[in-house]
Every structure is written in structure tokens, then in C-alpha cells.
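Quick sanity check, Aspartic proteinase:
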Amino acid sequence: METKLKSVTATLFLCFLLFPLVFSESNDGLVRVGLKKRKFDQNNRVAAQIESKEGEALRASLLKYRLRGNLADSQDTDIVSLKNYMDAQYFGEIGIGTPPQKFTVIFDTGSSNLWVPSAKCYFSIACYLHPKYKSSSSSTYNKNGKPAAIHYGTGAISGFFSEDHVTIGDLVVKDQEFIEATKEPGVTFLVAKFDGILGLGFQEISVGNAVPVWYNMVNQGLLKEPVFSFWFNRNADEEEGGEIVFGGVDPNHYKGEHTYVPVTQKGYWQFDMGDVMIDGKTTGFCAGGCSAIADSGTSLLVGPTTIITELNHAIGASGIVSQECKTVVAQYGETIIERILAKDQPQKICSQIGLCTFDGTHGVSTEIKSVVEENTHKVSGGLSDASCSACEMTVVWMQNQLKQNQTQERILEYVNQLCERLPSPMGESAVDCSGLSSMPSVSFTIGGRTFDLTPEQYVLKVGEGDAAQCISGFTALDVPPPRGPLWILGDVFMGRYHTVFDYGNERIGFAEAA
């Protein structure tokens, strides 16, 4: 199952076949950029499997530091560094220079820089498999030369800044600062069907503090309104992938009214989100609120391991068995239940039984060490991290079951089942394609409104006929306070709900997609 799961997981990135792009500008003052999506390509699995193995150690390392609270020291947890684009789906075309040199890019609301391969990229094989920007061929090129690097979850790019005109549809953004990538290591960019990334996030997370393309579109008066919106076509049988509309919204892309919520922290398009429910029942973890990011550069729904495990259990997804989780339940399960019933503060219980320390807001590993000590105590620190994390998840699960008046025996049985559904860090879980009709709905509370997803909407299907495999649309990522707990609502959610990014009013809107 594990080999099969890795194979299916890898396919999400290498799955779609790019079609020609369609640009249009109508008389309503809106600028439309047509998107195309790739069809699943089973033949590229081997290359993607290599990438999955290559990135496994880094993702595990990132997870370890998140669990130990290291990132909690910063208000600016670098979500960009956690992105891997392995499941990237939707792409569009832009031009850079005069005359325009064409590139296929991911329009990514989860980052803020524009980068494409450079003609000066000599030592990365990936650069030879994609179009490269040649400054000498552009009459509007301006030299900059400032060095730049962006680190992602399974790769990194480095190079230098340049300035040139960028063509998006019929718009020409003048003197746009962008990165010419001269190094694209790793398999991600080698097998990628896209050439670069066009970030649509805020300048606060822009590498080099470069002014994002979107800012310049607004500042240069190219748009009717400082608003852009995404419509993704989730019908796999249709060639049309969707549209990005710059300057407003297209009423043909949605039904009813949008529910708007304010941007709570500029950088990413981040907002406050309420409870997450399975078949209308609370999962408990976000009942007091969680943060969320609307991210067009991520296909799946990414959330705290605690909830993702509950969701994967509810839909019968097969994840990686966590022996540490089961050990915590076996050794401390009854004690945890007793302390919850005794009205002990849930966030302190794991520190009271010696598995975590308590910093005043949340539990952290008892094995937090300096960088020097880390090299000496990798194994012991890792085990302690796992115990602390498993304990905290167990407390949440048990607390939620006690609210439903379950017996101790039933609670321990249920939590052990959840332990078996724990996914791998940044990994996906497989589900039975024949069981979609019996799977529950999953709902997100945003702005006081409930946004439902059916199994057909949150399960991704790979392949056809008897060879078809299905992937849970939920994957785990733990971001500690103050940035987290955090959800990343990717294309699985944005495909169901038309999304408006209102830069002028610093808000995000969701409505049922047409």
C-alpha cells in the first residue's frame, strides 16, 4: 500500500497535459486569463517518485521544527518554503520582454514573486527543458543584478533580479522586477510542466521586497478595480481549466452572493475560519477558530494533523500507522480521560503527565535544544517530539468524544483507530473509489456561513476504469501559533467556491462556483 500510495501521490504533480492558452478582454473592463489544466499522465510516475523520496527528509525536518515550536518564535512563518507544487494543476501563459517571450506559469496566491528560467542558467538540467528568458532579445530590459533565492518544500531556485515589461492578456505591466532563475536543483523543476511562478500574494512576503506584478497592475492604472478572482473548472471531461479575471468578477462564474471576510495578516491571503465539521458534527480542534489561507498554488486542502486524521478516518483513508500515537494511548489514555473529566485545562494535560512542557499557550517538546545540541540528540529529540504531538492530538480527540457522551472503552478504541489513520508529513492518503457514496460531507465555517464539500469534490481520481485510484483531498501540515493552527484552502476548495481577492478592501470572498 505504501509503494502504491507514493505512486499515486506523485501523480498529482505530473498529471495534466497543457493546452494552448486563451486570453480575452471584454467590453466590461475585465481582463480574463484563460487557464488550462493537465490530464493525468501515468507515465511520469517514476520521476515523481524520485522527487517524493528526495523531499521526504526535508519535509520530515520541517515537520519536526514545526512540532517543536521553533517557528512559533516568528510572526512570519514561511509558508512559501513549505510549498512543493507537486500537485500543481492550473497554468496560464504570460510574456516577458519586448517582443514578449512566452512562459507557462502557476498563478500562485500563496507567494509574491515572479520568476522564470534564465538564459544564463547553465548548470541545471531543468533549465534546458523549459523556455529561458533572454535579456539581450528584449528592447525594454533593464539590468538589476541583485541576487535572489526562493526555497520551497522540495526544491529551491536562485538567480538574480531583472526588470522588463510583463504581458498578461492584453495588459502590459511596465518595468516589472522579476527573478531570472540560474539554478533549479532537484527533480521538481526538472519534470515540471510549468516554467515559472507568478505570485499574487502581498509584498510583505516578496523575496527581495520586490513589488509584485499585481501591485504594478494596480499602480499603473491598468485595471477597473483593484480586484482579481479565480474560477476553476472542476469538470475533468472539459478542456477549459477556468479563468483568472483581473479588475473585478465575472457574474457568470458564480451563483448567489459572496461571503466576505477580512484579511487578518497581510503577506498571504490569510483570514479567520471557524469550525470544521464532518457530516455536520464538530471536529473540535477549530471550534475556537483557526487561521486559513486561500492558495491557488496548492491543489489539496491542507490542515492540522489532528483534524486531517479525523477526516481521513471518517472517509476510510489509509495513512501511515503511528506506533508512537498508539503507545501514548495505551500508556496514558485512561489518565488523559480522567484529567479531562476533572476539568483540567486541556492544553496543560500533556505537560502534567510529562510528555510536553507548557509555555503558557500550548505544549512544546521537553527536548527542545540548541542547534549544537540538536546534532547530538537527534534521535531522542525526535521521539520526544512525536510523543508530545501524539499526546496533544489525543487530548483533542478524547475531549471531542467525551462531549458526545461516549464510554471510555469506545473512546480508547476510536482514538486507536485515528492513530492508524495518521498521514505522513505533507503526504496524502488513498481511499476506495467505490466508497464515495458512503463518505460524509465535510464543511468549513467562514464568515458565519457553512461551506460544504461532497466526497466527489474532495476526492481526486487518478486514472480510468479498473486502474483508477483515488486520493484523499486532505493532507496534513502543522503550523504553530501565532501563525497557526492553519488551514490552506487550495484548488479543491476554490474549485467548488468562486474566490474573490479584493486588494482594495483587503478582504476575500467566497460564493458557489457556477
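Posting the structure with no commentary besides this: The longest helix spans residues 378-403.
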